[in-house]
Design a protein that fits this description.
Number of domains: 2
CATH class of the largest domain: Alpha Beta
Helix content: 10-25%
Order of helices and strands: EHEEHEEHHHEHEHEEHEEEEEEEEE
Largest sheet: 6 strands, mixed
CATH topology of the largest domain: Rossmann fold
Oligomer: single chain
CATH superfamily of the largest domain: P-loop containing nucleotide triphosphate hydrolases
Distance between the termini: 67 Å
Number of strands: 18
Low-confidence stretches: none
């Protein structure tokens, strides 16, 4: 048996945007094939000259190999081509160019309820989905109780799945895909639908699948999950592979650095043509020193920093909370703070108009590294205005050196926080 689980060679996928893609007749398909060499040499041109401006390459010349038993995480920004790649590997769509050779049975979960029929019950869909995966009825029967128990939808197993919530759909779909012994398990971001408890179960199950020598391809924006589960990672950008390494953390850092852009900005300016939100509209978000001047980048661990949010409050509401979230360079949330964290009598009095929110990050709070700080604003328990990880404006703080007053240990220490604590030592 081949050591390779899959081999991808110069895989490309092209889509036409703005127009419906009509199916060609058999005669048109033969004509296209016959004239392909002439069009490649430039002797003939496509009849639809305007189509070039409406074509995009979702994937372009992607090549890689995955050995059996490897767990590969695919990361990148939205539109990087990750989901398109998995759809081709799952045989949902065909490539425009190139090929993919897959050695083994594939179980894929790309969208909630993929392969389910809404009019059939959960029980019937287990057998349907198992048959699609190439399983025999006896094999499905042997795994049936385990699938239902893992999915936690046993009470509703004889209910048509059209009545399931999206979370119940996902639970059952993942359980089927993971338990019917696929040699290659392909999982897209669909796990984000589930609650924290079930996500943890899914991560454990994928670890079990990988531990049994099977191959897992995992697409996720949850960088912590990628680092925890995968033994190698692939960073995709604009339909191409930018980086691939068994050092998963280095790939994650490269992705976060690319998200930062060239500026690694410590200041964010907002420009609006109209009101962005009926309650709250930030104008500036920046890191400053104690005097209110923009802080240089990078800076020392022994310096204090101030976060400043200059904003318009359009509508006063006691539920309004303004704050920030600090993320480490691997995406781990470090700390969150809001302007209403203290006792109620200490809350700032807001009025309609412009306000400057300032808060202090104390010296030696953060260890050496680069941190992503996101502005978060919400109406408590009612509405997110800026939500961490989605539409949150982001600035960056880089800490270098100053980790210890001791002359014997100046190197970076493990961990995220870097305070110098007071010690006493007494002889007994």
């Amino acid at each position: 048996m081949s050591e390779l689980a899959l081999s991808v060679c110069e895989l490309s996928k092209q889509y036409r945007i703005g127009k419906r893609a009509w199916y060609k007749t058999f005669r048109e398909s033969l004509t296209t094939v016959a004239t392909l060499p002439l069009r490649k040499m430039g002797i003939m041109r496509d009849t639809d000259e305007a189509a070039d401006s409406e074509l995009i390459w979702a994937l372009k010349d992607v090549s890689f190999e995955v050995k059996r038993g490897e767990v590969v995480g695919f990361i990148g920004a939205n539109g990087a081509g990750k989901s398109t790649l998995l759809k081709i590997l799952s045989r949902i769509t065909e490539p425009t160019e190139g090929c993919a050779r897959i050695n083994g049975r594939v179980g894929s979960l790309l969208e909630v309820g993929t392969g389910f029929h809404p009019e059939l019950t959960g029980r019937e869909n287990i057998f349907l989905n198992g048959a699609i995966l190439g399983m025999k009825r006896a094999e499905i029967l042997r795994k049936f109780d385990e699938i239902v128990a893992f999915s936690e939808v046993g009470k509703f197993i004889d209910t048509p799945v059209k009545h399931y919530s999206s979370g119940m759909y996902m639970r059952l779909a993942f359980s089927v895909a993971a338990h019917l012994d696929p040699e290659i398990l392909i999982v897209d971001e669909v796990l984000a639908v589930g609650d924290a408890h079930f996500q943890k179960k899914c991560m454990g199950k994928m670890s079990d699948v990988a531990g049994q020598g099977r191959t897992v391809l995992f697409v996720s924006h949850n960088l912590n999950a990628v680092e925890q589960l995968c033994n190698q990672a692939v960073l995709m950008e604009q339909g191409k592979i930018r980086m691939r390494s068994h050092d998963v953390r280095s790939v994650i850092k490269a992705h976060l650095n690319s998200c930062m852009g060239d500026s690694a900005a410590s200041e964010w300016h907002f420009r609006y043509e109209t009101k962005a939100d009926p309650w709250f509209q930030p104008l500036h978000f920046r890191i400053t020193d104690a005097a209110g001047k923009s802080a240089p980048m990078p800076s020392g661990n022994d310096l204090e920093h101030w976060l400043e949010i200059d904003a318009e409050v359009w509508l006063v509401d006691p539920a309004l909370k303004v704050g920030y979230v600090i993320h480490a360079d691997d995406g781990t949330p470090v700390y969150q703070s809001f302007h209403v964290d203290g006792p109620e009598e200490s809350w700032p009095v807001l009025s309609e108009g412009r306000h400057v929110f300032r808060t202090r990050i104390p010296p030696r709070f953060l260890n050496e590294g680069t941190y992503r700080i996101e502005l978060v604003a919400a109406l408590h328990n009612r509405q997110d205005i800026f939500q961490s990880g989605r539409n949150a404006p982001t600035i960056f703080l880089t800490i270098r050196g100053g980790l210890s007053d001791s002359p014997y240990w100046m190197a970076k220490r493990p961990g995220i926080l870097g305070p110098v604590m007071e010690w006493t030592v007494q002889a007994k």
